[in-house]
Design goal:
single chain, 136 residues, mainly alpha, 7 helices
């Protein structure tokens, strides 16, 4: 094959310059340039973002028995460990709602899990993830 047949197709023209440097300094500079945000609000430093952190948080919630105790503990505002704290990761697309729903089903099938049904009901309705519950 010649070089023309293996060439990567041209990228779609974007109305902005893509950011390739995602180091902490570059992100700080980018945020400083944004006019549409309130710069008086400090950065959240106690919670990391991204898929890896989202799935780490989910795995920790499941491992500590969070699904089992969810129904009993979810409404206690003084007990932050009673909930998964996955909202931001789900809302921003950092974790897959299909994967979370599938894993809840797996946990519920493999052991007695009192809170899995309540978690699933709230996950599917309150989180707006009605189509996320795996059926297969």
């Amino acid at each position: 094959a010649n070089a023309a047949s293996t060439a990567v197709p041209a990228l779609i023209a974007l109305p902005f310059e893509p950011v390739l440097d995602l180091s902490a300094d570059a992100i700080a500079r980018l945020v400083a340039e944004m006019d549409a945000i309130d710069h008086a609000v400090p950065a959240v430093t106690h919670t990391l973002g991204g898929s890896v952190e989202g799935y780490r948080r989910w795995d920790a919630f499941v491992a500590r028995g969070g699904l089992n105790s969810y129904a009993a503990r979810r409404n206690d505002s003084l007990d932050p460990s009673g909930v998964s704290r996955m909202s931001a990761f789900l809302n921003l697309g950092m974790v897959s709602p299909l994967r979370i729903g599938r894993e809840v089903r797996t946990v519920a099938r493999n052991r007695t899990c009192a809170g899995a049904a309540k978690f699933t009901a709230e996950f599917e309705t309150w989180r707006g993830e009605g189509g996320s519950q795996p059926r297969h």
